[in-house]
Give the backbone structure.
Amino acid sequence: MSAEPQIELIGIDKYYGSFHALKDINLTIPKGQFVALVGPSGCGKSTLLRSLAGLENISGGTMKIAGALMNGVPPRKRDVAMVFQSYALYPHMTVEQNLTYSLRLKGVPKEEMRRATEEVARTIGLDNLLHRYPRELSGGQRQRVAMGRAIIRHPKAFLFDEPLSNLDAALRVHMRKEIRALHDRLGATSVYVTHDQIEAMTMADHVVVMRDGVIEQQGSPLDLYDRPATRFVAGFIGSPAMNFIPARIGPDGASTVFDRPDIRSLPIGKKLDPGREVIVGLRPEHIAVGAADGAGMTLKVAVVESTGSLTYLTTEEPLQLTIVMTGRTELAPGDAVQVSVPSAHVHIFDAETERAL
Amino acid sequence: MTRTYTPWFLLAVALGLAAIYLFPVYWMYVTSVKSGSEIFSNPPTFWPADPNIGVFGDVWARRAMPTYLWNSVVIAGGVTAITVVLGTGCAYVLARYRNVWIDIGLFCVLMLQVLPASVMVTPLFVGFNQIGLLNYPRTAVVLAAAAKAMPFFVVLVRATFMSVPRELEESALVDGNSRVGAFFSIVLPLARNGILVCAILTFMSAFGEYIYSKSIIQSPVLQPASVGLSGFLGPNSTDWNSIMAYSAIYVTPILAIFVILQRRIVAGLTSGALK
Ligand SMILES: Nc1ncnc2c1ncn2[C@@H]1O[C@H](COP(=O)(O)OP(=O)(O)OP(=O)(O)O)[C@@H](O)[C@H]1O
Ligand SMILES: [Mg+2]
């Protein structure tokens, strides 16, 4: 896996009329990397992907694929493959014709085309479906055809726009692994749009979190999990979502005090200006339950939900927190629990800018 | 009770309405083979007592029907060709682009539909005269009738194009096709049935075109069958069975084409190009 950039986006801007859909997007994707674009609905993920494919014209900035400038280049000259959410299989063509559509356009010889089709069909397990029409396939099979249509081309980059969102949960988990394995086998460069942060975390080498047309933060999945740059990223990455509590830095500068006197202050493991308004972020899985060195606070359990392997607690009075415990618990609603958080796992965000401190 | 009978009731109503519309067709065929006195007999006979099939051959030769029908075919063919070629392109653009100018364009196209041919024929006549198009009267009629047929075609075919998902086209673009190539290899095949239906309807209505032909085409050898038929209908015409025979010869091919192609279209639609 070399480090030469396969896709370079420098200061990309995109306007729809007066609506600023992409704002100064900077992103470099090395060859062979799997990049996930995540973010809430309407944040511009699809717009960015479609700009990469050439289906949208960017309004400003520089876009390069494999070193070549792509501004204004039509889709057919970009040599990228795209898998659409709806799969966009050609309904009047058989699976085989769908797979070979791009090869036929390129004028690939019959014999070579047949070999490529067989190979791809074997790779994605469609051997005996080649003569069916898309309407005669199940959702999962259609998804495979869409994948096959992309990989048969050996493109410079794969672009995926929420390719798994129409599948049921079990198949989604399965295809997740399969797509990633395929990516590794082909040594491909992939950009994968999803609004499912679990998909992004599990599949990608590099995750880009977007919000309102801006890249909020990018980095490796664990980087984003351990060091979220903003409250938004902190809340978006990780499941169940991080707990946020408004607070103020105590007089010593090394702990937080809460507005309510009945919540004990929390050591934060760093020095900040005393009196500063902040937001404290605690991941549910980092909150320890039980008398931990007496430094915790006492809360009342409101709800206990068990999945068998994990138990979710929701507390009340004086602080509502979601807590994840491994294993099972004897706790019942109404019980008092001692909770504590190691200072290394306390995230502090500025109350005003919501940036991590 | 009501639930089971309502559909049957509605079916009966529909059949009744169809019968009201189809009865004249039946009456036309029956009258054409009746004798002169039987036509006016009271009460009327619903089945001719003594069918006279010879009337068809007689009218065919006497009224120069081959020439008239050929002119009808030429005019309808021309109208259909122009409408399909230009209208398909127009409908596609109107389906795929959304802005103020497109809305204005669509409005203008619909406006054409509002203007009746009888109002348009005089200005058209004057205009065609100015540019010397009246020397080619059939061409002039084709142009005028195509303009008249266009809105209906464009609006219906536009709806067909809008039912073809945009992503299919985009996928073809990314797969390496040009816009034009994507249109011909993806969009057009998927919209084929809709276009075919509209083309047939256009052809059939142009086959019966009357107003433009009547006013623009003076020479009988260039007139279509609709105008030829009206030549029959004088104030004191009594030759009813000949007129009916003429009409029967005129509409039978259209009815036959419709019945044959309709089955094809229905078959095409139910096999499901989309989905
Ligand atoms: N053709 C268009 N014209 C005007 N605005 C558009 C157009 N396409 C997208 N937008 C706007 O751009 C923003 C980003 O849209 P985009 O489709 O990229 O969102 P997304 O991140 O893919 O969301 P989702 O997860 O729902 O697919 C949205 O606010 C949308 O309304
Ligand atoms: Mg999207």
